[in-house]
Amino acid sequence: MNEIIKAMIERRSVRKYRSDMIPRDIIDEIIEAGLYAASGKNFQGVKIIAVTDKKTRDELSKLNCSIGGWDSNFDPFYGAPVVLLVISDKSHPTCVYDGSLVMGNLMLAADSLGIGSCWIHRAKQEMETDYGKKLLSDLGIEGDWEGIGHCVLGYADGERNAAPARKADRVYYID
Fold first, then answer.
1. N or C: which end of the chain has fewer CB atoms below 10 A?
2. What does the pLDDT look like over 44-80, one tens digit per residue?
3. The domain 21-154 is classified under which CATH number: 3.10.580.10, 1.10.1520.10, 3.30.470.30, 3.40.109.10?
């Protein structure tokens, strides 16, 4: 089987991470793969904010938890030490699709390097808060940005789950 297709079939979301930090060169390699995702008219209107600072990571986790309505002790990032926050320029009509393609590339690249990942939602709501706006401002990011998702990264604490069976009746041909 083709290695890329094999990776697509075997990649699973990880929901329990060890606390070990991923080396910077591996994070950079994953990010580079994300930046090469397709984008509408090659607009390349997606940015990735790599959060490895524990204080900022924990603040994002608390905000995400609050938006999700969970108990304040829950970590919606499942202990992952790295959060790649993907945002997309709202001025482009394909911003959500472009950001979603970046997220897919990030997760596949991580898996290919032995790094666990999971797409965590609520980035849209986070970027609409004062905290989210200040985070972007502090980084010098101007404009109107949509939070697409968080690609959390880390070393999996446990074995990879098997892929569940695929549902039937999802493909139709018109010959």
1. C
2. 999 999 999 999 999 999 999 999 999 999 999 999 9
3. 3.40.109.10
